[in-house]
Amino acid sequence: MKNWIIVGATSAIAESVCRLWATRGYKLFLVARNEGKLQQIAQDLKVRGAAQVDTFSMDANAFELHGQCFETAQKSMGKVDGIFIAHGTLPDQKACETSFNVARAEIETNALSVISLCTIAANHFEQQRQGDIAVISSVAGDRGRQSNYVYGAAKGMVSVFLQGLRNRLAKSGVHVLTIKPGFVDTPMTASIDKGGPLWASADQVAAGIVKSVDKKCNVVYLPWFWWIIMNIIRHIPEFIFKKMKL
Fold first, then answer.
1. Strand extents, DSSP E, the chain
2. Closest to 209 (Cα-Cα) out of 32, 81, 20, 5
3. Any idea which fold 3-241 has?
4. Whole-model pTM above 0.85?
């Protein structure tokens, strides 16, 4: 049996991951802002086979509640085996360009809140000498592009932080997984025109996440072909890249 904290549990990808874990009889501690939706998801997961489902209503930017959240989860489940961080926002790039306050708010949500939660989990798991930290970053963090560089900067910060955390915690038996999805059809991307082979469903990405956690992967691109795409983009010379509209 595994005991998982899921932050951003009402997101489409997180909900799909929880459904898969519920069928294994895991204990799940769901964290998100919307208490009503949390309760709906919790009831569904119990029906699907979860051994225990508890909820904690919290805005991820309420940094002062992060420690309390982790402690409550530990008391509720008896032990925390892993934390899956799946919250985030897709900012309006133009708004971020015209207002530093907007950009800062997006970086706090997509990067600093993640780092805060990971720091608490890392220190706990390091003492426990066991645990899993799985975090959704993004392919957008692999290279800054004019279309979403504030979001990309936040995700790039998360990816580099996780890389260092993985290096630090390896000797303690703690697994750190960086998840880099490409285009995913979820409510967060509702304003974007969809279609074509590059788009994946939340269920497809969730299946890849569960498999990657099981296999103790370090970094995973989902779907897999995004590794090829981003490898090409990363290696475009800067004097050419800066003239491209990406």
1. 3-7, 27-32, 52-57, 82-85, 131-136, 174-181, 183-185, 199-201, 219-222
2. 20
3. Rossmann fold (3.40.50)
4. yes
